[in-house]
Amino acid sequence: MDSIEKSGEKPITYDDVSKSIEKETADSSRIVLPLASIIECGNHITQINRKDSQKYVNEFAGFIEKALDGSEPWDIFTNQSELLSTEGLRNLVNEWKSLSCCGLSMGDVSIKQVAYYYYSKGYTAEIFTGDTGLKAYQPAPHPQILSRNRNRR
Fold this sequence. Notes:
With 153 residues, the protein is an all-alpha fold. The protein has helices spanning 14-26, 35-46, 50-69, 86-99, 106-120, 132-135; strands at 3-4, 12-13. It is globular. 10% of the residues are buried.
């Protein structure tokens, strides 16, 4: 599994992902695995040649287990539980109905919602994807508030 590439997407290699995780870990970032990403990645791993897939299954399962435990740099999934409530799922369906015309799948919309959930809590949220359509919905960085120098005239 050297890279993942589809039409309208930039290929992301295993090395790209590994380097990103290392960088974010060094920067003390928290990494979130949205449920849609877990399912989609699991589906892709299952499609790998059977003799090679077990290595990736075990490695990805390790990431999921760390996320479930809240081990750094992974953020525990239950922090997003309000998105899976009846109201949260109703919001997902309604947003998907309005964004499906733009090519966003329900999984994409749920990833977008997870990013905005963390953004609304004051975090910088990056959607790590080669899918340019989904990446376009990444929250903008929070504005920096500059203090005025009172000694300046």
